């Protein structure tokens, strides 16, 4: 659903030309999209955010309330579209694809490859009626945001992919400050959207949440989101742990990937680390969570019932790194308990 005839045609050509999917209808705005969804009941909906009459956020809200189904957001990198795309993922969209800023054969080929990968994941998603997380978050953020200054002595490493922003919106705002811990997040997401994700989480949380930069110190009561297209690791610095970013080869087909981060967290923090693997397709994070477990840390995997896609947490459980398998609503509480147990007295 898009208000640009050119882009609707491009989406149609990519989808119909795939041999895997078929376009049953297109819509020019949000109201038209609702009518077409009601009439055709598609398995997957491709939704732009910026549309006349009823925008994408409004349309997603109606669709998820009336007849939940897999929705993939197609959005621009920049401007209000990026922030709105993150909000759409919280409302129930399962993933997003960035529009190409350029036109031409190469740009179209890149876009088509990304779109089909996301559509395959969306087709596998378990779309559930879940209460909007925003209502709960207002109840768990009564205090001021952290003004972190100290070096973190404990670490929470989090891996997420398809459905991850919604899970992160449930977990990060519930984490308490004052436990000497930093949170390091790898969310499989295109470049530039990760900054909007960090800003959104920061607006809801007591933790300070930022998009990571190379060389940043790992500070207490701060959450760092790996920037799109960069792996993130923890290294030793003269005054404590530092973040290192690189554009090395993709791991499990993604960059950022969780396994490089988790491995470095296991090395730097050992028994003072908690690893969390959330919803997502594939097995990124499974090997890394096992390393955290083997180093004396605690591993947590999201359960099948609350995961949009159980691939990543299921692989983590199978690899032996998860001590706890929990619904998303219980993960923050368990993390807090484990950090409290680990906190130096």
Which SSEs are present, and which pair or pack?
Blueprint (H helix, E strand, L loop, with lengths): L4 H13 L12 H11 L3 E5 L7 H11 L3 E6 L4 H12 L3 E4 L6 H20 L8 H7 L14 E7 L3 H8 L9 E7 L5 H12 L3 E4 L10 E4 L5 E7 L2 E7 L11 H12 L3 E5 L8 H9 L3 E5 L8 H9 L4 E3 L1 H15 L3
What does this structure look like?
It is built from twelve helices and twelve strands. The protein is an alpha/beta fold. It has a seven-stranded parallel sheet, sandwiched between helices. A three-stranded parallel sheet has the order 1-2-3, sandwiched between helices. Strand 1, helix 3 and strand 2 form a beta-alpha-beta unit. Helix 2 packs parallel to helix 3, helix 4 crosses helix 7 and helix 9 runs parallel beside helix 10. The longest helix has 20 residues. The protein is elongated, with a radius of gyration of 20 Å. The N and C termini lie far apart (55 Å).
What is the helix/strand order? HHEHEHEHHEHEHEEEEHEHEHEH
Number of helices: 12
Average pLDDT figure? 89
Bin the strand percentage.
Answer: 15-25%
| Total E-strand runs | 12
Overall, the morphology is elongated
Give a nutshell description of this structure.
With 345 residues, the chain is an alpha/beta fold.
Throw out a few tags for this protein.
single chain, alpha/beta, seven-stranded parallel β-sheet, three-stranded parallel β-sheet, 40% helix
């Amino acid at each position: 659903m898009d208000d640009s005839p050119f882009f609707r045609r491009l989406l149609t050509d990519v989808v119909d030309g795939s041999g895997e999917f078929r376009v049953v209808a297109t819509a020019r705005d949000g109201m038209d999209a609702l009518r077409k969804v009601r009439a055709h009941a598609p398995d997957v909906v491709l939704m732009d955010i910026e549309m006349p009459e009823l925008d994408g956020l409004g349309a997603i809200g109606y669709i998820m309330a009336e007849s939940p189904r897999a929705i993939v957001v197609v959005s621009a990198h920049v401007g209000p579209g990026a922030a709105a795309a993150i909000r759409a993922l919280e409302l129930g969209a399962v993933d997003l694809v960035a529009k190409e800023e350029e036109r031409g054969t190469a740009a179209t080929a890149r876009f088509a490859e990304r779109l089909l990968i996301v559509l395959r994941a969306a087709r596998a998603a378990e779309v559930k009626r879940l209460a909007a997380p925003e209502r709960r978050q207002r109840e768990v953020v009564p205090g001021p945001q952290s003004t972190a200054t100290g070096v973190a002595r404990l670490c929470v490493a989090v891996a997420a992919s398809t459905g991850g922003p919604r899970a992160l919106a449930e977990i990060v705002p519930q984490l308490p400050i004052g436990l000497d811990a930093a949170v390091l997040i790898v969310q499989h997401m295109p470049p530039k959207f990760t900054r909007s994700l960090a800003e959104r989480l920061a607006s809801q949380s007591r933790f300070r949440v930022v998009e990571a930069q190379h060389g940043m110190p790992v500070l207490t009561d701060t959450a760092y989101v790996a920037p799109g297209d960069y792996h993130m690791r923890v290294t030793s610095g003269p005054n404590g742990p530092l973040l290192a970013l690189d554009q090395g080869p993709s791991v499990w087909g993604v960059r950022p990937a969780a396994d490089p981060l988790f491995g470095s967290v296991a090395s730097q923090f050992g028994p003072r680390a908690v690893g969390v693997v959330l919803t997502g397709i594939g097995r990124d994070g499974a090997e890394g969570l096992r390393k955290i477990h083997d180093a004396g840390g605690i591993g947590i995997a999201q359960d099948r019932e609350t995961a949009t896609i159980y691939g990543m947490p299921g692989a983590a459980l199978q690899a032996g790194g998860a001590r706890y398998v929990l619904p998303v609503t219980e993960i923050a509480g368990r993390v807090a308990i484990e950090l409290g147990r680990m906190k130096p007295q």
